[in-house]
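ingest -> validate -> predict -> emit
validate: passed (alphabet ok, no gaps, 961 aa)
predict: started
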Amino acid sequence: MNHAAGTDDGARIVGRDRELTLLTGLVKGLSSADPTTELPGTGVLVVTGALGSGKSVLLDEACRTARAAGVRVLRCTGCEVEAGLPFAGLHQLLRPVLDLAQELPARQRTALLGVFGLDGDAEPDSARNPLLTSLGALTLLSDLAARGPVLLVVDDAHWLDVGTLDTLAFVARRLEGEPVAMLVAARDTSVPAQFAREFPLLCVDPLDPADAGRLLDLQPEAPAGRARSRILDEAAGVPLALVELARAVAGDPCAARDSLPLTDRLEAIFAQDLPALPPATRQLLLLAAAAETAELPLILSAAAPDTTPADWHPAEHAGLIRIDGGHLRFRHPLIRSAVYQSATYAQRHAAHLSLAEVFTGDPDRRAWHRAAAVEGVDEGVAEELEDGAGRSRRRGGYAAAATALERAAQLSPDPADRARRLVRAATMAMYAGHPRWVAEITARVTALTEDPAVLAEASLRAGWALAVTTQFEGSLGYLLPLADAATDENPVLALDALATATTPAYNSGEPAHREKILRIAERVPAQEDDTDRLWILAGTDPLRHRARALALLHADRNGTDRNGTGRDSAGRDSAGRDGPAADEGSGPVRDRPLSQLITWGAAAWVLDETGEAVQLLSGALEHLRRSPTGGANATVAQALALAQYESGAWTAARASLDEAYRTAAEGGLENVVAGAPLLGATLLALRGDSDAARTAVHRAVHGVDLPACRSLQVRAHYALGAAAQAEGDHAAAYDRFRAVFTQDGEPLHFHASDYHLADLAAVAVRTGRAEEARAVLDAAGRRHAESEVSPRLAALVDRAHALLAEPDDSERHFQRALARPTGDRWPFERAQTRLDYAEWLRRRRRATEARPLLSAALEVFENLGARPWTERALAELRAAGVNATSAPGRQTDLSELTPQQLQIARLAAAGLTNREIGERIFLSPRTVGFHLYRIFPKLGVTARAQLRDVLPDALREVPGA
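emit:
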C-alpha cells in the first residue's frame, strides 16, 4: 500500500506530517547520540491505528530515514499462523545478528539460542528461563548498539507470539542509556497488553477530507465525479480503502454504480487480481499465505515439482508481493488474508498438507499445519500438538504451550481427553501469568467431563485466576465448594483449595467467607505438611489464631514433624513437596521449597513477625526472579514491600513495590496493580508529597470496587489521611482514619484497620473528637480481650490510650508502649510514640526528659526521609531548648534515586561488576554503566568504591552477592 505521490522511495506521504515528525525525531535522536556522553532516554513508540490506516507505510519511512542516517535496522512482522510458535517473531527480528550470540555469557547464550532450537549442546531444561532469554536478547542488542545505533521495527505486533511480545516488552523497559529505539505497530483494537499501558502511543487517525482528496488525486488513475464522491464517503479517511477503491474503480469504472466494498468487504478487493494470475502463481501465493513464512526455499519445496522461481513474476508485477534476498513479503497483510480466504477449502487443505511434509524437521510447525488441515477431530494431530506444548514448556514458552494445548483439545475426539488438555492449557496459562486466559479456558471444562480429579483441578485454576484479580466472590465460589467436597476423600486438595481461598477472603474482608473457610478447615485432619493450614489460620484471623499459627510457623521452620526427623514417611522434605529448593545459599532459607517460603513469609507478615517476613519473602523473591511465574513474582514482591515498609526499610520497599507493579501490570493481576501504588502513595504522603500521594491513590483505585475489597479500601483511606496530616489538615485526616472503622466502631477490615487506632487518636485530640475516637478504641479493647495481640499492635494500642487518656493517666501508657523490647522492629511507629510522649513531657515542663526522646525520634524521621515528621520533631526540640537543625548528612538522602537506581547502587556497593549486575536485574552492562553515571552525582560520590560508605547499613548487604 502506498499513500504517497508515487512509488519511489522517499515520496511524500500525504496527511501524516505530525507522525513523520515524531518518527524522524526518534531516528535523529539515535543517529546523533554520542556514546561517550549521556544518552537519550528510552525511545519506544507504539504506533496504533485502524486496519488500513497506514501504520506499515510510516514504519517503512522510518526504516528508510534510519538507514540513510547510518542506523542499523532490525525488523519483524507478526503473522497469524506463527502466533502459536514460541519466539518465532523474536527469531525473525534477531536472525540477521544471531552470530553475536556467541559473545553472550554462557547462561544467556544457552537460553536465547535454546528457545530457537539452535544450541544443540544445551541440556534439555537449560533454556526454560524466559528472563534469561530476555536478558540474552537485551545484551545482544546492547552489544550490537556498541557498534552503532539500532532501530527495532515491529509490525503487526497483534499477531506476534506471546513469548516474543514478553521479550520485546522486557527489552523496551530497559533501553534507557542504550542507542536503541523501538517502533511497535498494532491495530488499535488489538494492541498487545505488553505495550498497551506503559509506553507512549502514536495514534494514526483517519485522514481528514482534504488530505483524503489529495491522496486520491495522487493515484495513477485518479477517480472523478460520482465515483470520487462515493470513494471519499465510504472510505471515511482510511488510506488503504482510498487507494484500493481507487484501483478497483480504475480497473472497472462500472464498480462505482453500486455500493463500494468497505470494512469487512474490503478484503475482497485484494483478491481481484488473483483470477488473472496463472495457476502456478496462485498456488505459490496460497502456500506463502498458509505458511506465513518469508523464506522462499521452504515455500518452493512445498510447491508442485514443475514450479520455478519465474512463477512468482506475475504476482510481483501485480504488486501483490515483494521478493528480496530470498524473502517474500505481501504488500499488505490483507492481501495474504484475501489470498487465503479466496481459496477453496480443498485448496487450503492441500496447501497445509504440503507444508506439513516440508516441515518434517520442525515438529512444531508440522503439527500446526497438520492441525490446520484436519477435518473435525484427529487424536494423532492432537498428540503432536501436545508433544509440541511439552517442548514449548521446556523452553519456557508457557503461553505457546497453552495455545498448543487449547488447539489439541479442539482436535480431541474423546471429551475426557479434551477436558484434560484444557486443564493443562489452563495450568500453562497460569504459569505464564495470564489470569483472564485461565478463566476462559477453565470455563469450558465442566461441560466436557465428570471426572472429579479434572474438575477439581479446573476449579483450582479458575479460583486462582479470579483470586489474583479483584473478583473475590467468584474466586471463592469455585474454591469453597471444592474444599468442602474434598475434606474426607482428598484432604490435601481441600487444604490447597482453602489456602488459595484465604487470599481473596483476606482481601475482601467479608467475615462470612473467613468463617466458612475455618469451618471447613476444622474438618480436615492434620497432615504431614500443614503449611497450607498455617496460612489459613493466619490469613483468616491473625488475632484469634496467633498462638496456634506461630506454633505451626516455628515448627515448620525448625524442620520438625510428626516423625521428629524433619522428613516425612515418603522421604521428602518437611514441606511434603518435591518442589525445588528456594535458595542454594546460606542462611535459614536454604534448601526450602519455594511454596514454603511464600507461605511462611505471608503468615509471618500477617502475624507481625515482620523481620522474619522480610527474610523469608526476600529469599522467595530472589528465587522467583529466576523463574517465569509472573503472578507469584507480583504478589510476593508486594508482600515484601509491605513488610519492608513496616520494618522501616522504606527505600527498599519502594523498589519492591515498583517491581510488583510492573510484573502485575504485565499479567493483569488487578489486586497488585491497585495495591502496590497505594503503598507508594503512603510513602509519598509520609515524606510530605501530599499532592502526588492523592493523585496516586485516585489513579490506583480507579475502577476498583473498594467496598468489595476492604484491604485496599483501608489502605486508600490511610494514604489519603496521611497526606492530609502531612499538610496539617487534621480534620480531613480524622475523616479518613475514622473511615477505616464502621459507625459502630468495628473494623472495616478485620486485620488492617486496628493498626490505625493510634493515627485516629492523634488527629482526634487535635480536632476535639477524642470522645468518638475513645469509643472506637474501647470497642477494639473488647475484641482484643478475646485474642492474643502482637507486640506491635499492643504498642500502637498503648499509644492510642496515651493520647486519649486524661492528662495524668497518659504517662503509664506511653511508658508501657516504649518499654516493649521488640518495639524497635517498627522504627517509624516507635518514633511517633517517642515524639508524642516528648510533647506530653515538654508541656509539663519536663524538657530534660523530653530531649533524648525527641533526638531519637528525629534520627528515625530523618533516616526515613519523613519530612513532615522531621519538621515537627525539630520544632519540639527547639521548644525544649535545643538549638536544633536538620542533619541531612547524618544519612545519605536516597530519595532522588529511582527504585532501579537504588538496586544498582546496592549491587555495585556489594562488589558486583556491571555485567554481573545486569545478569541479576536483567539489564545490559551498558545500561548499568549509564545508571551509575547518573547515580554518582546524586549520592555525592565520584567512584564505585565510595558507594558502600554512603549507603545505610540496612542496604549494604545483598543476598547472594
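The first strand starts at residue 43 and ends at 49.
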